[in-house]
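Customer ticket, subject: "Can you confirm the structure for FAD-binding PCMH-type domain-containing protein?"

Message body: Hello, I'm evaluating your service for our small team and ran a test protein. I'd like someone to confirm that this is what the system normally returns, since I don't have a reference to compare against.
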Amino acid sequence: MKEGRGKPMRRAIEEIHQFLGDDSISTDGEDLKAHGCSEWSSTKIGRLPVAAVFTKSTDEVSSIAKVCHNCKVPMIPFSSGSSVEGHFYARGGISIDFMEMNKIVAFHPEDMDVVVQPSVSWMGLNDQIKDSGLLPVDPGPPAKVGGMIATNCSGTNAVRYGTMKDWLINMTAVLADGKIIKTRKDHAGYNLNGLFTGSEGTLGIITEVTLKLAPIPEVTGVAVDVIYRIGGTSREWKKSPTLFFKSSGTKAGVTDNIVCVRKIVYQNGSDDFEVERDAEKQHALWAARKEAFWSMLCLRKSGSEVWSTDIAVPLSKVPDLVEVSKQDLGNLGLFGSMLRHIGDGNFHESIL
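Agent reply: Thanks for trying us out. I re-ran your input and got the following:
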């Protein structure tokens, strides 16, 4: 800790310790490392947080923010730490951990909305409300709601359901000075929901949100065009570029979509086209896409790292980007995988 920053930082830690207690703040090296870096991020800051604070409520977050504001100490929220771009790096400040703010506060199936704390996972939420509704945004499996809003995440369902901003009704947030605000866009006033969504923690700390839910589709169909081998799934795959399709809605609508997609892919030289309607078999197919990144991690040799990228381009430019990226990998002698939720032009490249 630099001398110029040492006194205010120590003062902030002492004040937070006084009102939160021994179990709510840590300066342990392993805790700081877990809150300051990840094995899959290509962003390397080189400065761990000075302390990790574990909070349980909006009021506690407000008190922490007031202390940090008065002491001029940087702070950054942390939930699952799944970001590949380093959003959660505290750069020597205080990391506010929301691990214990993981509750579903209220579920209103008649209104098709749910109130949750920021560390609720989207997969866990959907599992708990699976008989009544669905949060259709589907980023990486570890993602939590707070981070999903802060980054305006999308995912493989983005073409049909949009991104996180489309499912936010209101939120409770704590500003840098500790002030608590509630947002809701109606016919008057600024759209603060839209302002906070995608702001990556720079405007405030999200502590509670109300989300819209989608009806559960009558039918879901998963199709795969051209198969490749990938680790981490329950089956063996051919080595070829692969497109994954998901269609949901009415039985007639899904059937029409599959017929249309099958015709298009065969017209464009597909080697194979596989469709599954059984839920377990659908999961096995879709797992190849969802678990591909973790398969890359398993391929690492001792001393090597995985660098991950996340960019978006116009749809018409995606094929060019794929070819250029493949050429660059080959010219540099690097091994990498390419994953896309291609419907919105998003592209991930994981490089060993």
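A couple of notes from the result: The domain at 300-351 is CATH 3.30.70.2740 (Alpha-Beta Plaits). The first strand starts at residue 25 and ends at 26. Feel free to reply with more questions.
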